[in-house]
Amino acid sequence: MDRITQLQDKIEQLSLMMVSSLDTIHKRAEMKQVDPNYPVTKKNEISIGSESIEDVIKASAVKIRNQIKDIDTLIKALPKIEKTKNQKNELDDLEKDANVSKTNLEKEMVETRNYMEEVSGIFRSLTENHI
């Protein structure tokens, strides 16, 4: 698996962790009144204690932080732009060299065919004269 694919996978995992954490916090936290005009009329049936929800939040934060560190490590491992430009320049030079070699080879092949025809003509004339 290449680095870009690993990076995509880590980012996808991070987004799933964040959504999962928000969902858990939303479902498990106790309801608090934030506006005096809107009183809390019903208790969250599946809430866990405020101390327990703090532990859940901390655990989720640690998982997310570790995932972000992994993503940073993968990003740092990506090739630098300058290196990529140098590699492109090297590839361009190699391509030019390959094209020059191809042209030279084509010329040599034409010369070789001419020599073969010349030699074949000499053999033909020798065989015709001796028969």
TrEMBL record:
It is found in: Nucleus. GO terms for biological process: regulation of transcription by RNA polymerase II. InterPro entries: Med7/Med21-like (IPR037212), Mediator_Med21 (IPR021384). The keyword Ribonucleoprotein does not apply. Signal peptide: none annotated. GO terms for cellular component: mediator complex. One of its GO terms (molecular function) is transcription coregulator activity. Residues 84-111 form a coiled coil. Its main location: nucleus. Keywords: Activator, Coiled coil, Nucleus, Transcription, Transcription regulation. Transmembrane segments: none annotated. PANTHER family: MEDIATOR OF RNA POLYMERASE II TRANSCRIPTION SUBUNIT 21 (PTHR13381:SF0), RNA POLYMERASE II HOLOENZYME COMPONENT SRB7 (PTHR13381). Component of the Mediator complex, a coactivator involved in the regulated transcription of nearly all RNA polymerase II-dependent genes. Mediator functions as a bridge to convey information from gene-specific regulatory proteins to the basal RNA polymerase II transcription machinery. Mediator is recruited to promoters by direct interactions with regulatory proteins and serves as a scaffold for the assembly of a functional preinitiation complex with RNA polymerase II and the general transcription factors. Belongs to the Mediator complex subunit 21 family. Component of the Mediator complex. This is Mediator of RNA polymerase II transcription subunit 21. It comes from Furculomyces boomerangus.
